[in-house]
């Protein structure tokens, strides 16, 4: 496990390549984030430590496009999960940085009481917050990308297929 910042724990023990990229992108993002925002997050994670996991599949819910990241607060901690093939294969470093910042923006909204349960409204205010922080998470989806993810998974199912979001949250 790697401590990325006080109370931000990164579980890096399964996916080495994706983990290396995640750490690099996280550090770039964290150093660019405004100090005020960082302080809000650090205070929040003091009460709810943040645990970051990389997942073979983001299957906690079913939606048209598999998410690249997710912020899932629990009673005593906050889980951030990210899709491994995205971390490994996305060709746009800025996009990877933006996706990590996006999930932290959800945490920021939880911390400041601005979080709203309505997903569209929450995503809209996260986009605005992200833009104000100077990050861009607008990496596009394509059929090609989806096919590449499935190909990535097909080759690794036997070795890593158990490391899904559902398994992590104990709902598999
Ligand atoms: Zn979001």
What key attributes describe this structure?
172 residues; 54% helix; globular; binds zinc ion
Specify the number of helices. 7
| Count of extended strands | 5
Structural class based on helices, strands and sheet pairing: alpha/beta
- List the uncertain runs: none
Q: Give the % helix.
A: 40-55%
For this structure, the quaternary state is single chain
Hetero groups bound? zinc ion
The H-and-E topology, N to C, reads as EEHHEEEHHHHH
What's the alpha carbon Rg, rounded to whole Å?
A: 15 Å
- The overall pLDDT, averaged over residues, is 95
* Biggest sheet details: 5 strands, mixed
Share in β-strands: 5-15%
Shape: globular
Whole-number tally of structural domains: 1
In words, what does this structure look like?
- By secondary structure, the chain is of the alpha/beta class.
- The chain has one domain.
- It contains 7 helices and 5 strands, in the order ββααβββααααα.
- The protein has a 5-stranded mixed sheet with strand order 1-2-3-5-4.
- Strand 1 (2-5) and strand 2 (8-11) form a beta hairpin.
- Helix 1 crosses helix 4, helix 2 crosses helix 4 (93-112) and helix 4 packs across helix 5 (119-133).
- The radius of gyration is 15 Å and the shape is globular.
- The mean pLDDT is 95.
- Residues 102, 106, 123, 126 line the site of zinc ion.
- The site of zinc ion has 4 residues, from helix 4 and helix 5.
